């Protein structure tokens, strides 16, 4: 059987844990990825057989930077410390290439597959101690970025083969959420579906380059949400359809009501005050330290959203959502089912598998509990029941089910969801 067919021919569904870029940004003492073997053992205990990561391919293979002593750390001060994915606690220095190989070796020891992607044109470089990585990425002409990423990923496959680890690579994604980030620079697209269509020629060139280099390996890209208005415009030669069905609903109402994703100059802090903790500063004063402004450009996250996530009272945030949940429940469940049905049909029409790389409610503050509470947890169960019904090849329990999120401690929920989706028995929790 050709390695390119691995993701299609897998007999059992893949249960995926989203390790993103955190597996290398949070490796210091007391951090969730200080010990990779422990992280993999915990993943297996919860029922996971696959992890999805930013493999930092551009940095390692195409940036021209010395990565033998890559310095990583927080964004600065307390900025981002209550923001999910951004709460890096300690400064660390890693040999980036050696660390990537150690991840694959640990995956091999624990019989876990790896989906290799890149978050580099979204936020990975913001955690570096200097802007060199960010500047190297943006020095690449936007028309060439997908091709350069393809070459970087092909270089990664070459390295894994040389090290006897390529059998752990389940799938290569050129980049995460391609229509949301700096891959769309210069396209002038005004909406996500428009961006999907406009980006396709660039992505097709990237996929073609990867095919030239590694015709034996499966390759794709992945999309934020489910681009239901542009599925016919996706690149022609994908080996898998990977989508992120965040349905938002009630969370979307909160984001729109308080302007969390708009410009800072339009943000009304008094309107959002009921959600904030006492002592919240003026939002214009809440940023990275002086001289580090490049970090806010290296991430696509809007400053009002960082501010509110950092300064919200998580209980007040959750109460706001629960108070309005009844108005959104049916629509959110129906949207999730419809999105999955449409995506499954699009994948079937192409003869490729469907994977749910992220989902299901949306982006919440680090200490919010809506996703793993009774409402969010049931939406996770609903998503995995529907994914099982539709023959989805791989799925997350939800994006927050990973070592760097509080939800990781809810072992029983993850094991239950694993059983719903895969039909496999999972191990009892280790006491």
Please tag this protein with its features.
431 residues; alpha/beta; TIM Barrel; 9-stranded parallel beta sheet; two-stranded antiparallel ribbon; 10% strand; globular
Structure characterization notes:
There is one protein chain. The protein is of the alpha/beta class. It has one domain: Alpha-Beta Barrel (TIM Barrel). It has helices at about 5-10, 20-25, 35-45, 55-60, 95-110, 130-140, 145-160, 190-215, 250-260, 270, 295-300, 305-310, 315-325, 330-350, 375-390, 410-420, and strands at about 15-20, 50-55, 70, 90-95, 115, 170-175, 220, 220-225, 240-245, 355, 395. The longest helix is centred in the middle third of the chain and has 22 residues, at about 190-215. The radius of gyration is 20 Å and the shape is globular.
Rg calculated over all Cα atoms: 20 Å
Low-confidence region ranges = none
How much strand?
5-15%
Dominant shape: globular
CATH superfamily: Glycosidases
Distance between the termini: 41 Å
């Amino acid at each position: 059987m050709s390695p390119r067919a691995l993701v299609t021919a897998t007999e059992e569904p893949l249960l995926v844990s989203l390790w993103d870029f955190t597996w290398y940004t949070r490796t210091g003492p007391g951090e969730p990825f200080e010990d990779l073997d422990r992280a993999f053992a915990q993943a297996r205990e919860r029922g996971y057989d696959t992890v999805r990561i930013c493999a930092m391919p551009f940095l390692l293979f195409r940036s021209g930077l010395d990565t033998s002593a890559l310095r990583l750390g927080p964004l600065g001060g307390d900025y981002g410390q209550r923001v999910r994915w951004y709460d890096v606690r300690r400064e660390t220095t890693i040999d980036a290439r050696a660390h990537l190989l150690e991840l694959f070796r640990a995956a091999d020891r624990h019989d876990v597959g790896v989906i290799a992607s890149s978050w580099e044109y979204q936020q990975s470089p913001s955690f570096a101690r200097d802007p060199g990585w960010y500047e190297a990425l943006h020095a690449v002409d936007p028309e060439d970025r997908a091709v350069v990423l393809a070459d970087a990923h092909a270089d990664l496959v070459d390295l894994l083969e040389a090290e006897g680890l390529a059998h752990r690579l389940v799938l290569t994604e050129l980049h995460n959420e391609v229509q949301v980030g700096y891959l769309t620079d210069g396209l002038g697209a005004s909406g996500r579906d428009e961006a999907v269509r406009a980006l396709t020629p660039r992505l097709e060139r990237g996929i073609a380059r990867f095919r030239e280099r590694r015709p034996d390996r499966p390759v794709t890209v992945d999309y934020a949400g489910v681009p239901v208005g542009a599925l016919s415009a996706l690149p022609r030669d994908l080996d898998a359809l990977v989508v992120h069905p965040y349905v938002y609903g009630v969370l979307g109402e909160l984001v729109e009501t308080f302007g969390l994703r708009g410009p800072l100059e339009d943000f009304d802090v008094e309107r959002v005050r009921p959600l904030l903790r006492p002592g919240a500063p003026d939002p214009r004063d809440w940023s990275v330290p002086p001289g580090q402004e490049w970090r806010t450009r290296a991430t696509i996250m809007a400053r009002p959203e960082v501010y509110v996530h950092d300064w919200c009272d998580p209980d007040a945030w959750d109460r706001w959502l629960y108070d309005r949940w009844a108005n959104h429940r049916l629509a959110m469940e129906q949207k999730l089912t419809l999105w999955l049905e449409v995506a499954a049909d699009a994948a079937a029409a192409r003869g490729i598998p469907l994977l749910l790389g992220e989902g299901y409610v949306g982006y919440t503050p680090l200490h919010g509990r809506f996703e793993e509470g009774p409402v969010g947890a049931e939406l996770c169960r609903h998503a995995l029941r529907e994914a099982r019904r539709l023959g989805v090849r791989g799925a997350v329990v939800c994006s927050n089910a990973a070592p760097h999120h509080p939800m990781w401690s809810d072992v029983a929920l993850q094991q239950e969801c694993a059983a719903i989706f895969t039909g496999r028995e999972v191990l009892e929790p280790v006491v």
